[in-house]
Structure formats: structure tokens, C-alpha cells
Amino acid sequence: MSKPVEYSAPGRINLIGEHTDYNHGFALPIALPERTTVTFRPADTDTLVVRSDREAAPVRLALGTVPGDVGGWAAYVAGVVWALHSAGHHVPGGTMAVTGGVATGSGLASSAALECAVLGAILSASGLTLDRVEQARIAQRAENDYVGAPTGLLDQLAILFAERRHAQLIDFRDLSVRSVPFEPEAHGVSLLLINSHAAHQHAGGEYADRRAACERAAAALGVVTLRDLQDRVPQVVAELPDSEDGRRARHILTENQRVLDTVAALHRSDFGAVGRLLTASQESMRDDFEITTDHIDLIAETAVQAGALGARMTGGGFGGCVIALVPGERREAIGDAVRAATRHHGHREPTIVATHAGHGAGG
Ligand code: GLA
Question: Mind telling me which GO cellular component terms the entry cites (predicted)?
């Protein structure tokens, strides 16, 4: 019996740049302080027994698992085993204990946190090193081809590259990642994370529809990916057809520009400008990409009316969390206004916390 290995991975907040990843665009995530931790005890066996503190029963899976064998939460673990195995790497058996610190179904990438923590634990236990982009691809493969959710690389790259007090500018065309200082508290501004508790999921459905619409729009515009139009956004946007696919493309193109503008504003510590970009992103997700809900819109709009510098839904959409940049002294009042508005509309009371950029996955 080898020594146990502990590895943890955070959830992420995408500050801005939604649904841009599979369009080879830009995004700007940070890591959450909340993390998922995996304790792996390798043993000389060809099965892996996985327990989660959130589930009653452990799951036993064969190291030769293939898509379709395991469903539910353990499919993310089995998917990593399968993806590593299919890439030709040896995966040891043993027991794994998962402690989940990231809220699930909230747009905070709890699935990718689990994948990256499992992957890191297996790699450490077997003395394998894979660079972070390769790790991200293995974890993504687990999600796409084992679990069946057609997601991009945002969550895994965000989690693997995150650094304390920084956001990461990811360029999905060449998968390069650049750190951008992100310390609003140093400027009297707080980042609020407002969990609506309206759960979402990405296996199929609306997420896949948006992806298909972007691909159709790119083809209609004669390019492989919408990113190919990025150096002439104003003209392209002005000429986009007023159709559903046209609006989907407009969101992606304008959102990429907002990510770059946010990075520039952060370099100037201009949180007023960052806030306006967040709100513009929220409006684009609401009107053009149509991935928000009335509940989410209510939270974001109430926060801004109560004095937030800006607010937007974060993550894949159709529920989950809203982030708001707020002047420190307005924190309580904005939280109270959001709670009152959701109560008034008959929604469950949101959980509201001030948060910050945490560190990335590690042992
Ligand atoms: C989910 C997916 C990501 C990304 C976001 C939207 O989190 O996992 O790949 O597409 O939605 O930005």
C-alpha cells in the first residue's frame, strides 16, 4: 500500500467572456477560494473505489471503464480514468475520498474542479507529469466524451492556471494564458458572488444549441470560427443579419472585445469601467445569446439599481450565479436589495458572499 496523495482544485468564476471558449475567443476567469479535495490511496488492484462526502454510497469502477459504464457524479471520476487510459497512461487502482467544497449546478465549474482534482491526484500518485494544457484536454475529454457534456476548455484552464490575486486572460485560439492583477479590495471595491440556487446543467439541450448556432453563423460568414472576424468586429456586427444566429454571433464578437476592454480597464484599476463592461455582458447574454433567466436578470438588475458598479451572470447560463462589483460601503445595502427583490418575486433566497481570486489546482 503506497502513501496517500492529497490534491485539490478550486471552482472558478468567469469574470467575463461567456461561451467564447469554443469559438476560439477570450475569457477572463479567477479561481474561487472554495475547493474540491481528493485523497487517493493507491493499491495493487484493478478497480478504483470512490467515496464522496456528498453521497451516501461509494462507487466501484474498473480501471478499464468505458463511456456508458458509470453515471451520475462518479462519471467525472471514471471519465478522467478513461481519458488517461485512452491517452496511453497507466492508472493505478485504490481508493479515493472526495470532499466537495464547490457548490454544484451553480455555474462555478464544480465538475471541472472534480476532474482536475482527480487527475492531479492520479498523476502525483503515479509520478507522471503532464503540462497544464494537456491536463486540461484530458479533463475536457472526460467531460465531453465520457459524461457527454459538449463543453469547452474554459473551466479546466481556469482551474489549472489560476493564481491568487490575479485573473487569467485566456486566448482559446492558441491556448495561451496571461495573468492580470485582480485585487478590487485594494481599491475599496468588493466582488460579490450571488448564488441564485437555480440549478443548471450542460449535458445537451440549450448549451449544445448555442454551440451549433455559433458554428452555423461562422459558416454563413465564410470563416472556420467566429474569432477569424475579430479584427473587423464593428463592420461585421453592423452587417450581421437580424436573425437568431446573427444575434448569437453578435454576442460572441462583442463579448470578446469586452474581455479585452476589461483587461485594459483592470490595468488602469478603473473598476467603474470594469463594472460597465460586466453589465454590458449581462445584457448581451440576455438579449443576444439568450442564456439568462428572468430570475438571474432580476438579481443582476437589482444589484445595479442598488448601486453596484456592474453585474452579470457567470458560467454557462440558465441559472447559477451572478457576480457584482460593488463599492465596499454599499455591500450590505446591495445584498439586502437583492434578497428583498428575490423574496418579492417568490424565488428562493440567494446566498451572497464577498469573494476573491484564489489559487489554482495543486497538491
Ligand atoms: C460552461 C462550460 C465552459 C464555457 C462556459 C460558458 O462552464 O463548461 O466550457 O463554455 O460554460 O462560458
Answer: cytosol
